[in-house]
Amino acid sequence: MGMQTTTETTPPSQRPRRGGLRRWLRDLRPASDRLVAGGSLSGLLLRRLRDGVIVLLLVVTVIFFLAHVVGNPALVFAPVDATDEHIAELHRQFGLDRPVAERYWEYLVGLAQLDFGESTWQQRPAIDAVKEALPSTIYLTVVGLGAAAVLGVVPGIVAGARARKPFDKTSNLLSVAALSVPNFWLGLLLILVLGVQLGWLPTSGRFETASIVMPALTLGIVHGGRIFQLVRSATFEEMSKPYVTVARSKGLTEWNILRRHVVRNTGVTTATIVGWEYVRMWGGAVFAIEYVFAWPGVGLLTIDAAHRQDFFVLQAAVIIAGAFVIFSNLLIDMGYQFIDRRIAAS
Amino acid sequence: MSVIVAKRTGTDPGRTSQHRVWSRLIEALGSRGWILLVLFLVLLVAASIVPDVFAPHDHETQNLRARLLAPGESSPDGLHLLGTDSLGRDLFSRMVIGTRLTMFIAVTATLIGAAIGVLFGLLGGYFGGRTDRLLMRLGEAQTAMPMFLVAILLLSLLGPSVGILLVVLPCLVWPIFARVVRAEALRLREETFIEASVATGCSTSTILGRHLLPNVAPRILVLCVVEIGHVMLSEAGLSFLGVGVQPPDTTWGLLISEGRPLLAVAWWLTILPGVLLGITVLVLNLLGRYWESRSGAAG
């Protein structure tokens, strides 16, 4: 209403409806109103899945064009002293003299059949190497998220409820510090103190139950910092609502206000925060931490593959990890629908 | 706000006078503390422009007799404030030299990412419609991808170099700028002054560049400060993993990586560059938060 720009002369609802791509483009909604006005649950999940697949396709396409059009795969396989004829021979063997479009289609079909190519370093299908590493990463991220939730949620609620008190100030500064230090460096610091100096915990690999403690703690500190900040501000905001003043004037103790009203009302927000943090974890920190602690997960595999120029393992790791994140995103969304029926009802 | 005021004026039994002095000191530092933070950044910029003024030793001179000296120990060349590495090079001097590339990559990559994000955000927020939704969806979906792995893959495919880092790192930050600028543009396009500019016949580029951009500029600046820190961490991470900056170039992240094999023998090689990096990012974060809270209070 009252929009003066020329492009907004007809409201979206009155624009002519057409099928196919146009329709798909139209129902790309901004993120904020998706959960509220997103329609049915299955519609929402389908849209999420579709977006994920499109992004994955985009990444795969970029990888393909960088590897096959900008770079030359034959050069990767050729020995250092290979002659031009030798490289041309390899070129033919790999079928690189065929049109790009044809190769791209073949590549996509291969990926759809879970054919990620053969690892040059491990001498086995690249997907097997990733399959072997994935459970370790999932295990680490889940335990790490648990640590982050413990470190972030409870102090966050306390700090938000007692805003501007010493505890709030100290923990706030600590959480900013946790977000500011490099995660891999934090891991090294823990190794130095808890592993080398005190000798309490194993420093690398995954051999015993205690192996998980340090990597998970590192993840927990880094991501706990962000969870803390978000939970703190959510609690603070809730505490300044009128009903809290009413509860106070009724004579409820601060503890009861917090326990009976505030924590329950911020519960869904807190769950959302923790859920998002899980997706964020897959955005970076966990892989560097795996490398630091030699944790045999996807991150360590990827970095080893990068050092050995093993393109197929790299590619398989990125695509499978991406698919996993999209899938867990779906699960988290479904979880919210389950927790908060208001979302499902609207 | 009223709740807090009520709490403050209410009885607060646990407070001694000594406590009050302490908290007043913190508060005084809090309101003027940003000067210290800015001073720190000025020092870093100075160190990256004229490193020789700050570095006590030549950062490349090797001295095998002065290997792995602990912080504070001296060699015939003089005092090594932060110790020496396995080739006897002075760590403090190397950290000073590393400042230039660390800052250069972080600032340049952030500015490139900001330019892309601001452009997309302005266009999307002002015009709305399909392009907007497509761009925002792209940015949002990208944050749900393991972009760090994608970055490793790209860097290993194209060969790690500073140039490629300046392509990969902006890809990680543009969605943040786009989201913030878009929200601001959405809000501003409803304002009367934009309506007036349309009515007086300003061209779209004039409205975007002369009227919208100056109004979102403060937000962009604050965001830049915070994001420079995040980009610094990403670069350090990639360099630490061996797919970022390559020796003989030096950044703080690379120094941490080089010190790692000697962690149990010479802790300072790993820990101290990390402390400097952590403090720098912390300073940027605190400054960003401070300015944001001030502009938030004013607006």
Give structural notes:
The complex is a heterodimer of chains A (346) and B (299). Chain A has 346 residues and is mostly helical. Chain A is 73% helix and 0% strand. Chain A is built from 16 helices and no strands. Chain A is elongated and about 90 Å long. Chain B has 299 residues and is an all-alpha fold. In chain B, α6 runs antiparallel to α7. Classes of the chains: A mainly alpha (346), B mainly alpha (299).
Structure summary:
Chain A has helices spanning 20-26, 34-37, 41-70, 73-77, 84-93, 100-112, 126-161, 166-180, 183-197, 213-239, 242-250, 254-281, 285-292, 298-307, 311-339, 341-345. Chain A is mostly helical.
CATH architecture of the domain at 135-310 in chain A: Orthogonal Bundle
- Number of DSSP helices of chain A? 16
Strand content of the residues of chain A, in percent? under 5%
CATH superfamily of the domain at 135-310 in chain A: MetI-like
Radius of gyration of chain B, Cα only, in angstroms? 24 Å
Proportion in helices of chain A: over 70%
Could you say which structural class the secondary elements and strand pairing of chain A correspond to?
Answer: mainly alpha
**Biggest chain-to-chain interface with counts:** A-B, 72 and 68 residues
Derived structural class of chain B: mainly alpha
Unreliable stretches of chain A, pLDDT < 50, 5 or more residues? Answer: 1-38
Would you list the SSEs of chain A in sequence order as H and E? HHHHHHHHHHHHHHHH
The tally of strands of chain A reads 0
What is the mean predicted local confidence, pLDDT of chain A?
80
Give the topology, please.
The complex is a heterodimer of chains A (346) and B (299).
Chain A lengths: L19 H7 L7 H4 L3 H30 L2 H5 L6 H10 L6 H13 L13 H36 L4 H15 L2 H15 L15 H27 L2 H9 L3 H28 L3 H8 L5 H10 L3 H29 L1 H5 L1
Chain B lengths: L1 H8 L7 H33 L1 H4 L19 E2 L2 E2 L11 H37 L1 H15 L3 H12 L3 H27 L3 H8 L4 H37 L11 H8 L7 H32 L1
Helix pairs in contact in B: 2-4, 2-11, 4-5, 4-7, 4-9, 5-7, 6-7, 7-9, 8-9, 9-10, 9-11, 10-11
